[in-house]
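Per reviewer request, we include the raw input and output of the structure prediction for the construct analysed in the revised manuscript.
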Amino acid sequence: MNKKIDPQSTKSLSEVYGEGPLARFVREHRTGGSLPVRMIRVRQPALTQVDPPVREVSLQIALKADMPFRWNLGDGWSKARARDGSSILVPARTEIAYECGGEADVLMVAIPERELGGVLEENEGLALSALDAATHQGCMVDARLITSARSLWQEALRNDPTSD
């Protein structure tokens, strides 16, 4: 079972990657969309680390990678070969431990949990828990997801030239 944390005690993904040891990996922050969605582009070397729980649902997409990758969302270690376009979904308030066997350029898309739940309910008739299956399916590659995330990244620059 995932290690869930009290929502009042968690920071946002932007806060976690904006301070402390993780800040050294950040290349750029952007905000876009009506929810709003916060995006962080990071370049990470080969490493082993634990990201603390954050209050958003986080989609992490490898824009450029070709490495062995292991991760643990609290329910045991999973492994895959991370390649360009590989992505994982991290539930809100869930710690993630991971081991990256090489460099990676990653786009992290942080979506507010409550707003995402509302969108899923309104448009698809689904509860937020419907994403649990995607969380546990491992590294996934979905061309539509990658294209949408890249488009949102570009659109955020156009709509907010000051960015974060």
